[in-house]
């Protein structure tokens, strides 16, 4: 096998099965040696990207972050479209880019496939020719390349559109052709740059499900760059969250959604998040507001709760052990079937309430209310580590 | 280049002296026979080969006739004839060939009969110093010798054809140039070894080419006719200018340029 | 039913008079001289004049040399355009300005300049003659060279513009699929700029076809070898205006026919 040798891609045409992978034997995945081992350091003027990244064979990792976080730069560095300033990109044991050792493999010789944000299907070629382009460049003869392409188009359900040009395809179809084109060279690493961003909501739902299926079948590593948390949660096994060029949080979907560590992540997963000091069942947040929490811990801590857990009252509520504080309505927006109320006060929180409650409480900006959250609805966890 | 410039300056000084001498005694010419005052602008359409000599003649004329201004339009004779036929505002037409003049007279665009004011003879212009030892038309057929002629549609080409026929020389040139300057330029640049051109052109370029006279040129002399254009905007000045060209002063300038004058 | 044409007229977007008027004037300005040629054409003697062997020879030579000149321009001009569009090198602005020199230079001067380089005593001409026995002046190759010199800026400028306008991310996409720089250029970049390339080639060909000054200065005028249609037209003007008109019309008709045919073929891509 070529795993230890030069990183030349083999193409699907080499073997009868289009998805057979030359580098990765799924039975022999070793957790201590991920397929992709990268430390991406790119200086671009005042901006510095510094992201360590490890992706195992068969694993799908989502690089999630706001615009300008450096996600696309990271993807371009992995593809060889932008050189690293420092660090390394090592794929299957081969250094594709390591400035310290002057190691550099140009894009066209990296076993990397890319699905670009707006697909970049070659406008002068048919869908079939687009998919066959990669295999042809890897020395496969024309006939075999076309067969490979046809088989991939069939897999993405576009066999009957093989002879259409990109401009005759719908957005969803173009996305699938782009995926087929990237997979037809059987890349060790598949990169997807906002693969669903250009689609309308309805198409996105179907395409996302389909993409999930194909990513599941991909034997190599896959890295998905997105700013859409839903894409990340549905498609990825693991999330790496990047803000301003740095990783701020990393983990599986359950961990990240339950325990966000930054304002951005909390907003992404729809939680109120506050940082404070814990002392047993009490966490002091904001301007000295003491929140009673279900978890018991000490020291630097996060407290998270869902907007729907926040109840609003015209006067201070009596009775059950609740956290209550006076707040001012800053704004009201539609949020699904409910309304989301932004509240100012000792802490800034979002509360989801029914339209009926809004009418009853006369919730308009500037209105003073009391907010309440049950201790059982909160989740507190250490901020360190 | 320097040598040439000096020579030009010297020629200009000589001309100025001549003008000064002749100009004094000729003041009466300001009023021609019919009594109309000679003043204003004279528009002269003249063959391109007259550029240098007519420019000087024009300056002399202006000096002799204060209040006049001579404006030239130098171009190929046939192009000028076509312009006059299309109603261009010309006062005087000086052609390098009777054929172009005929176009104008036949169309009724001439006021009176054209008069020949100069003759131009052909010679062979060769690379400076005559390295190939050309002595006559017959030498031009030697293998390895490249020759430029004018196209037969233009006067210098027609004249060359006459001369070559008279000498019974069958010549294959490498190019048939659109005008005599083009043919001469090819010799100057060394692209051809020889070209059959007018004496005046060879004289103007004598710093860069060597002239070789040949006897058959006597049978292929080119006449330069001049005429006042019918409906000339300034007929009085036009007649005065035509007379000046054919007068003593004009002839002196033309002779110096290499023309023969009648 | 009656109101339909009115409705259709109302729906058409308005054309501002400030644009329409100069547009029409511009068209008239371009077409009127052509009308003049047509009006003066001696239609009666046309077939006889066109059948003259010298005319056909000059026409064939014109078409051949303009086509060869265009091929030469493509061969040299497209890489030059690519260099100007894609490679940032010191002095690029100067080089870009130099490329347009043949546009500004009077063609006759261009012809003299070519003689100074490729002529018998030229910088390269002597060496070419001694080493390879190649002499360019007064040969059909010289005509091609002169036409290419004058016409190449049209191609380079058009292709450079197309290259600058093309989305370079397609080239990145090609690289991720395993295409090296050369394959990317031939398989992706060139097809992407094909319309600009075609437009440039057409401009180049048309300019080469009408070339006069540089050709007569560098290659001279000899029927069958270097006398192209514009040279024949110019010489015809010396003696016979009508013949010149006929030759011009013929050149015009042939070139318009060829360009129209090409446009249908490959300038408007499917």
Q: How would you describe this structure to a colleague?
A:
Chain B: It comes from Micromonospora deserti. Chain B: One of its GO terms (molecular function) is molybdate ion binding. The complex is a heterotrimer of chains A (385), B (262) and C (270). Chain A has 385 residues and is α+β, with helices and mostly antiparallel strands. Chain A has two domains: 247 residues, P-loop containing nucleotide triphosphate hydrolases (Rossmann fold, 3-Layer(aba) Sandwich); 113 residues, OB fold (Dihydrolipoamide Acetyltransferase, E2P). Chain A contains nine helices and 19 strands. The relative contact order of chain A is 0.12. Chain B has 262 residues and is an alpha/beta fold. Helix content of chain B is 39%, strand content 23%. A five-stranded mixed β-sheet of chain B has the order 2-1-3-10-4, sandwiched between helices. Chain B has a five-stranded mixed β-sheet with strand order 7-6-8-5-9. In chain B, strand 1, helix 2 and strand 2 form a beta-alpha-beta unit. In chain B, helix 2 runs antiparallel to helix 9 and helix 3 packs parallel to helix 4. Chain B starts with a helix and ends in a 6-residue tail after the last helix. The N terminus of chain B is likely disordered. Chain C is mainly α and 270 residues long. Chain C is 77% helix and 0% strand. The N terminus of chain C is likely disordered. Classes of the chains: A alpha+beta (385), B alpha/beta (262), C mainly alpha (270). Chains in contact: A-C, B-C. Chains B and C meet through helix 3, strand 7 and helix 6 of B and helix 7 and helix 14 of C.
């Amino acid at each position: 096998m070529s795993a230890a040798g030069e990183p030349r891609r083999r193409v699907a045409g080499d073997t009868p099965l289009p998805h057979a992978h030359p580098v990765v034997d799924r039975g022999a995945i070793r957790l201590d040696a991920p397929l992709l081992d990268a430390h991406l350091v790119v200086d671009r003027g005042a901006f510095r990207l510094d992201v360590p990244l490890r992706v195992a064979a068969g694993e799908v990792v989502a690089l999630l972050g706001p615009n300008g976080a450096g996600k696309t730069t990271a993807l371009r560095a992995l593809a060889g479209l932008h050189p690293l300033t420092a660090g390394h990109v090592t794929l299957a044991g081969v250094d594709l880019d390591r400035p310290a050792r002057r190691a550099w493999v140009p894009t066209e010789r990296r076993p990397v496939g890319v699905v670009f944000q707006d697909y970049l299907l070659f406008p002068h070629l048919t869908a079939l020719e687009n998919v066959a382009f990669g295999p042809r460049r890897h020395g496969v003869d024309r006939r075999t390349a076309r067969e490979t392409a046809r088989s991939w188009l069939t897999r993405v359900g576009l066999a009957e559109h093989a002879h259409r040009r990109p401009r005759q395809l719908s957005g969803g179809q173009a996305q699938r052709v782009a995926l087929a084109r990237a997979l037809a060279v059987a890349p060790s690493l598949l990169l997807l740059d906002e693969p669903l961003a250009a689609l309308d909501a309805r198409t996105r739902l179907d395409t996302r499900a389909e993409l999930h299926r194909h990513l599941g079948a991909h034997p190599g590593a896959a890295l998905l760059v997105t700013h859409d948390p839903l894409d990340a949660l549905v498609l990825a096994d693991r999330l790496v969250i990047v803000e301003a060029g740095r990783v701020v949080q990393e983990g599986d979907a359950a961990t990240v959604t339950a325990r966000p560590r930054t304002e951005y992540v909390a907003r992404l997963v729809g939680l109120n998040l506050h940082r404070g000091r814990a002392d047993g069942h009490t966490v002091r947040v904001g301007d000295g507001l003491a929140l009673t929490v279900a978890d018991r811990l000490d020291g630097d801590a996060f407290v998270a709760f869902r907007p729907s857990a926040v109840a609003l009252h015209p006067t201070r509520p009596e009775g059950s052990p609740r956290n209550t504080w006076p707040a001012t309505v800053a704004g009201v927006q539609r949020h699904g079937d409910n309304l989301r109320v932004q509240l100012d006060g000792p802490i800034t929180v979002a509360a989801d309430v029914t339209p009926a409650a809004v009418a009853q409480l006369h919730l308009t900006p500037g209105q003073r209310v009391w907010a309440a959250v049950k201790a059982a609805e909160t989740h507190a966890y250490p901020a360190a580590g | 280049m320097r040598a040439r410039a000096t020579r030009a300056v010297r020629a200009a000084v000589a001309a100025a002296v001549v003008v000064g001498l002749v100009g004094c005694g000729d003041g009466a010419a300001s009023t021609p026979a019919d009594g109309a005052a000679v003043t204003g602008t004279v528009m002269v359409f003249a063959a391109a080969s007259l550029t240098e000599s007519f420019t000087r003649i024009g300056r002399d004329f202006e000096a002799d006739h204060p209040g006049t201004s001579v404006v030239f339009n130098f171009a190929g004779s046939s192009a000028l004839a076509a312009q006059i036929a299309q109603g261009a505002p010309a006062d005087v037409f000086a052609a390098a060939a009777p054929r172009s003049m005929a176009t104008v007279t036949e169309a009724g665009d001439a006021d009176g009969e054209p008069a020949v004011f100069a003759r131009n003879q052909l010679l062979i212009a060769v690379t400076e110093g005559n390295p190939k030892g050309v002595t006559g038309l017959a030498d031009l057929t030697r293998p390895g010798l490249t020759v430029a002629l004018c196209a037969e549609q233009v006067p210098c080409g027609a004249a060359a054809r006459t001369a070559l026929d008279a000498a019974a020389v069958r010549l294959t040139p490498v190019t048939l140039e659109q005008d005599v300057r083009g043919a001469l330029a090819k010799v100057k640049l060394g692209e051809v070894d020889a070209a059959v051109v007018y004496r005046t052109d060879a004289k103007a370029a004598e710093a860069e080419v060597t002239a070789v006279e040949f006897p058959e040129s006597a049978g292929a002399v080119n006449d330069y006719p001049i005429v006042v254009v019918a409906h000339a905007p300034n007929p009085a000045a036009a007649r005065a200018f035509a007379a000046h060209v054919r007068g003593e002063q004009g002839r002196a300038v033309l002779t110096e340029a290499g023309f023969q004058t009648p | 039913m009656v109101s339909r044409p009115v409705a259709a007229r109302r729906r058409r977007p308005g054309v501002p008079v400030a644009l329409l008027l100069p547009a029409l004037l511009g068209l008239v300005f371009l077409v009127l001289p052509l009308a003049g040629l047509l009006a003066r054409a001696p239609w009666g003697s046309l077939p006889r004049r066109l059948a003259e062997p010298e005319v056909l020879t000059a026409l064939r030579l014109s078409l051949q040399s303009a086509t060869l000149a265009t091929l030469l321009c493509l061969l040299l001009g497209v890489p030059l355009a690519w260099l100007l569009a894609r490679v940032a090198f010191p002095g690029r602005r100067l080089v870009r300005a130099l490329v347009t020199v043949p546009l500004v230079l009077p063609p006759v001067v261009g012809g003299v300049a070519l003689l100074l380089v490729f002529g018998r005593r030229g910088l390269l001409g002597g060496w070419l003659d001694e080493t390879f026995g190649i002499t360019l002046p007064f040969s059909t190759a010289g005509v091609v060279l002169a036409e290419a010199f004058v016409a190449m800026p049209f191609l380079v400028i058009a292709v450079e513009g197309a290259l600058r306008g093309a989305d370079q991310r397609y080239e990145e996409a090609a690289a991720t699929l395993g295409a090296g720089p050369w394959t990317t250029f031939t398989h992706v970049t060139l097809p992407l700029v094909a319309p600009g390339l075609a437009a440039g080639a057409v401009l180049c060909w048309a300019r080469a076809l009408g070339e006069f000054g540089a050709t007569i200065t560098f290659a001279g005028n000899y029927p069958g070898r270097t006398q192209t249609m514009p040279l024949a037209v110019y010489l015809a003007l010396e003696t016979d205006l009508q013949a010149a008109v006929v030759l011009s019309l013929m050149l015009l008709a042939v070139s318009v026919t060829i360009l129209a045919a090409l446009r249908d073929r490959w300038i408007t891509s499917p």
